[in-house]
Amino acid sequence: MSEEIQPSMDYNLDADSELRFEVEDKNAKVYVTLISGFAEMFGTELVKKKKYEFVMGAKVAIFTYHGCVLHLAGKTEVSYISKETPMIQYLNCHAALEQMRVVAEEKDERGPVVMVVGPMDVGKSTLCRILLNYAVRLGRRPLYADTDVGQGSLSIPGTIGTILVERPASIEEGVSQTAPLIYHFGHKTPSGNSVLYKAVISKMAEVTLESMNENKRTKHSGIIINTCGWVKGDGYANLVHTAQAFEVNAIFVLDQERLYNELLRDIPSFVRVVLLPKSGGVVERSKDLRVENRDLRIKEYFYGHKTPLYPFSFEVKFVDLKLYKIGAPPLPDSCMPLGMKAEDNKTKLVAVTPNLGLTHHILAVSFAEFTEEDVIGTNVLGFVCVTHVDMERQSVMILSPQPRPLPNTLLLYSELQFMDSHA
Ligand SMILES: Nc1ncnc2c1ncn2[C@@H]1O[C@H](COP(=O)(O)OP(=O)(O)OP(=O)(O)O)[C@@H](O)[C@H]1O
Q1: Phi-psi domain of 74 (left: phi exceeds 0; alpha: psi -120 through 50; beta: other)
Q2: Ligand 1 binding residues, C-beta < 6 A
Q3: What would the pLDDT profile of 100-116 be if each residue is shown by its tens digit?
Q4: Where in 220-321 does DSSP place strands (E)?
Q5: What is the reported pTM?
Q6: Does the annotation place 170 within a ligand binding site?
Q7: Protein residue with least CA distance to atom 7, ligand 1
Q8: Quick one: DSSP state of residue 88?
Q9: Among the residues of 246-340, which ranges form H helices?
Q10: What was the ipTM of the complex prediction?
Q11: Considering only CA atoms, which residue is closest to atom 28 of ligand 1?
Q12: What is the C-alpha radius of gyration for the chain, rounded to an integer number of angstroms?
């Protein structure tokens, strides 16, 4: 078989410009090397002469403040240099946050808590990554809270979480996922259960803010909060709730003037609300691609990304499972017990009797041992996937990152599914 000759080319970038490219081919491998000068990818500096590998799905911008030469080898979908980037504005935002951190240090107060908002595909996650990278490059130790349940970066979809950021994101693998604090939500969009979403956000915010008191460096460094692209109606109400719960002191609004004006109207004036342009390079993702991405995140959870992981498969008897779903089906207020609102039902733990419908579903393994505990407000240990339900044997087969036994048997049902094609 003759090997296809791969294109390879040097790109000369002027100061304040970026090389953008996408990799779409399933088997393509694209390599980038910084030949001379200085360059960074979403805030992480490239090491000179090091070869970085990108595979299918990569949508990349390599930016330079001073000019550089980059070598690009392999089949890309598009590759071009752009001089129109909002990086200087993003850098100014970082500088403003840094000033707030200096003041926080002097007064031993909490540093900036900033929320990044905007519609879908405007580069919210990318801006968070840039701001976090710039902060750690200056020796800061900020927290990153990801409240995007659909396309979050800290764990599998259907969850929200917080992580302490101690080093710049890896060029090839993104934001580090070491030891995040993860909360189960169980739906791929906040609209799946808005009451529960708000309750989980409140709890996560409380714990995250409290954790800042344990470490002075983190306290002064602050928090960067990423949000969902759902900005209308209930989605907007969720954003306002998140801002209140985290007691934010700045909001960066990407691309949408309407959202910016709504926030100016509804958020107290001591919160700085800043409108920022989106980068022309941000790539729109179709609905199908979002579904694919969600699937990929779950696959990576069990099977790893660059470094392969080897999950375990074992049987668990129905009697050994304490399986719950959060949120009972809606009842009219008139049918509710005295003093309860229909809303309370949405955060209620409902026992699930195992059945065939569980097949392929993700289950969150709770840290809580008893239902009397605050299960919704307790973070999770990890996730398993039901690969098979055997009604005759009264058991389920599960895919788990750890060998048997389950570290805890209180499991929470998730609407998200994963077809394990490896099994
Ligand atoms: N300047 C750029 N040039 C090329 N690609 C970029 C650039 N900025 C961001 N991207 C890519 O665009 C894609 C979408 O960006 P990002 O995930 O930050 O958007 P988002 O607003 O957070 O999306 P969502 O609505 O799903 O939360 C990502 O794959 C990212 O790598």
Answers
A1: left
A2: 20, 59, 61, 120-126, 148, 151, 229, 279, 281-283
A3: 999 999 999 999 999 99
A4: 223-226, 250-254, 272-276, 312-317
A5: 0.93
A6: no
A7: 282
A8: H
A9: 257-266, 287-303
A10: 0.98
A11: 59
A12: 23
